[in-house]
Design brief:
The chain is mostly helical. The chain has helices spanning about 1-10, 20-35, 40-45. The model has no long low-confidence stretch (mean pLDDT about 80).
């Protein structure tokens, strides 16, 4: 359910909880699901251009 709500917040369909910003909420869920999301390897994966 958290993943669904984070996706809805990310696209602007749902508001984040009052105590958090949209970006903070989505980032918190990402860190919950992938604690090392901020690692160098994770950043490298997201920074690489897509093939095609």
């Amino acid at each position: 359910m958290r993943v669904v709500s984070a996706n809805l917040v990310h696209v602007g369909v749902l508001a984040a909880p009052e105590s958090q910003s949209d970006t903070g909420y989505v980032t918190g869920i990402q860190r919950l699901l992938a604690p090392d999301y901020d690692s160098r390897a994770a950043r490298r994966l997201t920074d690489e251009p897509a093939d095609g």
